[in-house]
Design a protein that fits this description.
It is a single chain. It is built from eight helices and ten strands. It is an alpha/beta fold. It has one domain: Ureohydrolase domain (Arginase, Chain A). The strands form two sheets. It has an eight-stranded parallel sheet with strand order 4-1-5-10-9-6-7-8, with helices on both faces. The protein has a two-stranded antiparallel ribbon with strand order 2-3. Helix 7 packs parallel to helix 8. The two termini are 22 Å apart. 51% of the residues are buried.
């Protein structure tokens, strides 16, 4: 696997040396409101050079890590099933080489492809999910593989009691009923995150971050903004707490840079990805 010509800042080691492997999944064909997340990974790479590799929050530097950026997958926009297969195959390749996959979406559906691969390697997989939306519909307009259904499809794989959702503040009534019966949901914020982390212990974790968990006053560049979200500082502290877990794969998704011409949403996405990479790096 060759490194991408343009990499996310500080993520340019050789593949064989890498502990974390980053790849983009530029896909947004099932987006239910405003498309544009397919441009996130490319934009984040170019704009990442507006931030530093050094984190004053952690006193760590990406230059001291070994993260490989393999670039974007070429995904067929009109075929979600094929796109998910391609994502699963790339994730499987990274896992088989003993490395941790880090995916930049794309719409949230891309998480399903990665989870399929990770769950095959880690049979006791749990999922920690930060989002504004429950994403627990069984189908959306008759389509089961939709970004509105992604956590339900993940539940099909891992089962009851293994999905932990935080920041949720939007969904239809049936989604919240489903959550009460099948997942753990902390609505609106991260209040119970610390005790949840203690409860999970060292079980293998896939972490998925939908950036619209952030309040749109801080992060307007997303396809489905929801008022009442968390702040950057709250999100950063929550990521720090999650880093205590046994992270075996993770993703960051739902930046849609075209809806924020100021660039502040992309800058925030780049900064939170830097912090996640540094927190999760072992």
């Amino acid at each position: 696997m060759e490194k991408n010509v343009q990499t996310f800042i500080g993520c340019d080691c050789e593949y064989d040396d890498a502990k974390i492997v980053l790849f983009g999944a530029p896909y947004d064909s099932t987006t239910s409101f405003r498309p544009g997340t397919r441009f996130a990974s490319q934009t984040m790479r170019s704009e990442s050079f507006g931030i530093e590799t050094y984190s004053p929050y952690q006193d760590k530097d990406l230059l001291d890590t070994k993260v490989f950026d393999s670039g974007d997958l070429e995904l067929p926009f009109g075929n979600p099933d094929r796109a998910l297969e391609d994502i699963e195959e790339r994730t499987k390749e990274i896992l088989s080489d003993g490395k941790i996959p880090c995916m930049i979406g794309g719409e949230h559906l891309v998480t399903l492809g990665a989870v399929r691969a990770v769950a095959k390697k880690y049979t006791d997989l749990n999922i920690v999910h930060f989002d504004a939306h429950a994403d627990l519909r069984d189908d959306y307009l008759g389509v089961k593989n939709s970004h509105a259904c992604v956590l339900h499809r993940c539940w099909d794989i891992v089962g009851d009691g293994k999905i932990f959702q935080f920041g949720i503040r939007s969904g239809d009534r049936e989604e919240f009923k489903f959550a009460k019966a099948h997942t753990y949901m902390n609505k609106f914020n991260f209040d119970t995150l610390e005790e949840t982390v203690q409860k999970i212990g060292q079980k293998p974790i896939y972490f998925t971050l939908d950036l619209d968990v952030l309040d749109p006053s801080e992060f307007p560049g997303t396809g489905t903004p929801e008022a009442g979200g968390v702040s950057f500082t709250q999100l950063l502290n929550a990521v720090k707490e999650v880093s205590k877990l046994n992270i075996v794969g993770f993703d960051v998704n739902e930046l849609s840079p075209v809806y924020d011409q100021t660039g502040r949403s992309t800058a925030l996405a780049c900064k939170i990805l830097r912090e996640i990479l540094l927190y999760f790096y072992r």
